[in-house]
Amino acid sequence: MTARTRSEERTGFQELSPYHPTYDLQADFVMVYGIDETMPDRIKQWRDKGYIVHLMTGVSWGEYQDYLNGKVDGRGHWDEAQRNSKGDNISHGIDVPYMVPTIAFADFLTERIRVAVDAGVDSIHLEEPEFWVEGGYSDAFKREWEIYYREPWQPPHETEDAQYRASRLKAYLFTRCLDQMCSTLKEYAKVTYDRNIRFYVPTHSLINYTQWRIVSPESRLLDLPGIDGYIAQIWTGTARTPNVYEGIRKERTFETAFLEYGIMQELVRGTNRRMWFLHDPIEDDPKHTWKDYEQNYFKTVVASLFHPHISRFEICPWPSRVFNGKYPREDELGRENIPADYATKLLVVMHALGDMDQKRIAWREHHLEVGILLADSAMYQRRIPELNPVHGSTANDLLDWSPFYGLALPLLKHGLVVRPVQLDNIKRFPAYLDDYRILVLSYEFMKPESPDLHNSLAQWVLDGGILIYVGDGSDGFHQVREWWNQGKRKYLSPAEHLFESLGLGTSLTEGSYSVGKGILAYCPIHPASCAHERVKANRLRDMVKDAIGSVDGVHLEWCPTNAFVLERGPYVIASVMDESYHQEPVVLSGSYVNLFDANLPIVHRITLNPGDNILLYDLTAIEQELQLIAASSRIEAISRTDKGFEFVARGPENVNGIARFRCPQRPQKIMIQDNVHNDVAKFEWDEPSSTLCIRYANNPTGVHLKIYW
After folding, report:
1. Residues 140-167, buried b or exposed e (16+ Cβ, 10 A)?
2. Angle value at C-alpha 92, between 87 and 97, nearest 5 degrees
3. Are strands 198-203 and 229-232 parallel, antiparallel or unpaired?
4. Mean pLDDT for the chain?
5. Which domain of life is it from (predicted)?
6. CB–CB of 456/423 below 8 Å?
7. Half-sphere exposure (Cβ direction) of 134: Cα atoms closer than 13 Å
8. Is 295 buried (19+), middle (13-18) or exposed (0-12) by CB count in 10 A?
9. Bridge partner residues of 32 (DSSP)
10. Residues 662, 655 contacting (CB under 8 angstroms)
């Protein structure tokens, strides 16, 4: 681990409360949340503590009562609240409805945020552009429908076509809103202050929004020049959403997070935009115990680290509720503050995350990557449960979004590195598919928004790609008014157009077809059945294996396994899945520091059972004789002297400080000095690894430690 400057903005957190030393996490930047009369003072407090300060505010809901009640422009705006088919407002709280992003609403938000530009922030995060699928019944939305489609509004719940068109409009409205706001404020900052201001969008993943039945712009944001990047809002609360695998419905936090982080990296892959991956040490639901939070937090951290294209992280939303909050005890006798060990582990991991920009990336074992194509239009097909169920499925099946997980989990659980791939990006970036040899596709839960996607897919197959198509054509949304059924040449589904683009005609039987140097494999089953039936999951796996083995002159091998082990520089990230190819443990041998242990112990043999995850530091990767390995503090001003070395450690109050260094020799004495004490520090020396472990009390103002040989 090396010292970094805050200007790199590798790690940050969001916080609504004023500065307090108990949650001064010593990240690179802080996102001050919310625009009110206290905002300028909160910005100043955090800036005075050395932070780069951003601002975050919501764009779909907030304390907008003045706007709603007509105090802003003399016109009431309650007709712009998102409303369901029963006529009820969809709300985030009392008098806090989710909003239809009209032009007037975008103007209102722009003026509110202009205050933050005047306050000096150079980065603004416009959080969670969300339009609920069950919405679409307010007067404002009806007006937008008539303007956009040039036809009378239709109740979204009545037909698949109305549902699809309503959701597509919802995505457009928030895209328009963000474009308007960012363009206006970037020009204002440049003209008024000659400053280049940055705009980021913290957003849930396409996978989560689709499962939760929310519409958001997602990949449409790539078309907006005013957007500089994103925060992938993935955490225990999204990743523990139940899904179905081989007929069993339950939480699968690691696997779900793995897929969620995967689709989010597609918003920046091949661009110069930034992405921060979010983790949350707890979650929005306050009913769980600290043990539950800790186990799920580690699963999300490990899942995120298997995506090495991303090396920036939001390390904590709302640290005040983590480090000062109380949650249920394991014995159910009241509530308790964060356990000391968990607090220390969190700080160790958070500072390690700031060191993940590593050049050397390597899987321990051979792992084959496969892409599962996923489009924004998946959000448009999330009909409400009262409508006809999809392919005979139940309301739970709809909520679980089994068609997607039916494709993803059977492959991921058997050791394929499953990467969700943004179908819409194929036409944005000419070389977008170059990194993939195997893609899985189904139009039973999403649709291609333009026919030219198939030209690019066909060329990719001709050049040697392996495309596995899974679908039986039963999805009712095949009949929506779209490009594949509106011209002279009408197709029953977009899959027919795809097959024809590959030169195979429109009607295929199950099997593999040679297309140029590549293969199309066709499996005529509904992907949801692969979630519910082990036989169908095996059928999918067998088709992938057969297709891989049928390409002449190309050696692709899928070695089924239950584990992933990745090296990012000196860091070793490992996860062992349950419900997998086998249930055997995985043993890692070597010389490591366990970063998921508050004592930062040296370990030589780690046994990981199914369900276990780990983050290790490989001591054999150290190249310097004096090297910081891990710490629960921000370590600064490391300097070597003739007598030893010294450094400054900064961390939040009430969190135990610990740091492990590689040293050229055993220290004789360590002195620790803060603004109150000057004492001899406790330390442990491990001779075989030549590492030093020091313990101290964290302090955000800084603890000065001097090590004497």
Report:
1. bbbebbeeeeeeebbebbebbbbbbbbb
2. 50
3. parallel
4. 94
5. Bacteria
6. no
7. 16
8. middle
9. 15, 55
10. no
